[in-house]
Amino acid sequence: MNTNRKILLVDDEQEFREITGKFLLRRNLESLQAENCMAALDLLGQREREVDVIVMDVSMPGMDGISCMAEIKKSWPDKEVIILTGHASLQVSISGMKKGASDYCMKPVNYTELLEKILLAKKEFFHKQEDTA
């Protein structure tokens, strides 16, 4: 598995991005950060080959995370997306999974759970790459 690929953290809360980025770095996982969907799309356009997993908040100003994920999947269908929701709504998570999310986590985030889901998503991305090689 290519461990050099990064996780793209997309969340309008800077503190969450910073804490999560540090948590991942302590586990030898690098991240890139974007504060909204447009920044995420721009970053992916420039550094697409560096990213395998995207962790994205559902509730953001401008384009929401579910719509943003749909845009990402149009251009980069192989990217694994984990959605984050502070809403205790199973419907939001189900909607995200139907539109292409590989998994979801509830906020406040349990970092052990998020790490497990990221590692699984990285494996899935790697297997997709092997299948197309």
The major beta sheet can be summarized as: 5 strands, parallel
Q: Identify the strand order in the major beta sheet.
A: 2-1-3-4-5
Percent of sequence in beta strands: 15-25%
Distance between the termini: 14 Å
Order of helices and strands: EHEHEHEHEH
What general form does the structure show?
globular
Name of the CATH homologous superfamily: Response regulator
Kindly state the mean pLDDT as a whole number? 92
**Rg (C-alpha, Å):** 13 Å
What is the count of distinct domains? 1
CATH class: Alpha Beta
- Going by CATH, the architecture would be 3-Layer(aba) Sandwich
Number of helices: 5
Question: Which structural class do the helices and strands define?
Answer: alpha/beta
Query: What is the assembly state of the chains in this entry?
Result: single chain
What fold name stands as the CATH topology? Rossmann fold
Low-confidence stretches: none
Would you count the extended β strands for me? 5
